[in-house]
Structure formats: structure tokens, C-alpha cells
UniProtKB/TrEMBL annotation:
Keyword Calcium among record annotations: no
Protein name (database record): MGMT family protein
SUPFAM superfamilies documented for this protein: Methylated DNA-protein cysteine methyltransferase, C-terminal domain
Methylated-DNA-[protein]-cysteine S-methyltransferase DNA binding domain segment(s): 6-79
The UniProt record lists the keyword DNA damage: yes
PANTHER family: 6-O-METHYLGUANINE DNA METHYLTRANSFERASE (PTHR42942), ALKYLTRANSFERASE-LIKE PROTEIN 1 (PTHR42942:SF1)
Alphabetical UniProt keywords: DNA damage
Residue ranges crossing the lipid bilayer per the database entry: none
């Protein structure tokens, strides 16, 4: 992996605001990384100083070995889980300029 991609992934994760979450796939897509697994590898090796707890699996759940600590940190930021799953429709981060993909409103 090149250093530019590595730093880009770190910058994007760092920009996920408190009270929101993103998936490994979201971060990979924004960074131009070849796979969400690469994002996970970067977090595992070099993510101790990042808001790693805001990054979830595609189904809205933390990795099993992180579940307790991750959900506790998210709860402290106002992100509530239903069991061990975070509602991505409610809490997913939308980077600036990204349009809402929800159903159209009445007005």
C-alpha cells in the first residue's frame, strides 16, 4: 500500500464527526481504496489515535472483539444501538456535498 492512500484513509476517518458513523466500505470508497478490508488493516495497525469507534461493518455492527468498547464510546457521543446494531439510516455520516439518498419529501 502506498503512503498517500494510507494517509488519505486516516484523514477521512479523522473527519467523521462525533455523533455519526461510517462503514469500512464508505471510507474505502471515499479514499479510493481497493477494499474495505484495507481500511480495517490501517485501523488495526495505525488507528490508535483516530476515532476508530465511528467505523462499523456494512451491517451497522462493530467487529465482535470490539463490540463492548465501541458501542460504549458511540453511546457517549449520542449514537445508540439496537442490541449491537447501529441504524445506519439515522447515524451514517454524509460528507459535505453528498446528497441525501432517502425518499423524496413532500416539499
Amino acid at each position: 500500500m502506498d503512503d498517500v492512500l494510507h494517509e488519505r484513509v486516516r484523514e477521512i476517518i479523522e473527519s467523521v464527526p462525533a455523533g455519526t458513523v461510517a462503514t469500512y466500505g464508505d471510507i474505502a470508497a471515499l479514499a479510493g481504496a481497493p477494499s474495505p478490508r484495507m481500511v480495517g488493516a490501517i485501523l488495526a495497525e495505525d488507528g490508535h489515535d483516530l476515532p476508530w469507534h465511528r467505523i462499523l461493518r456494512a451491517n451497522g455492527t462493530p467487529a465482535p472483539h470490539l463490540v463492548h468498547d465501541q458501542l460504549e464510546r458511540l453511546r457517549a457521543e449520542g449514537v445508540l444501538a439496537d442490541g449491537q446494531r447501529v441504524d445506519l439510516r439515522k447515524y451514517r455520516w454524509k460528507p459535505d456535498g453528498e446528497e441525501d439518498t432517502g425518499p423524496p419529501g413532500l416539499f
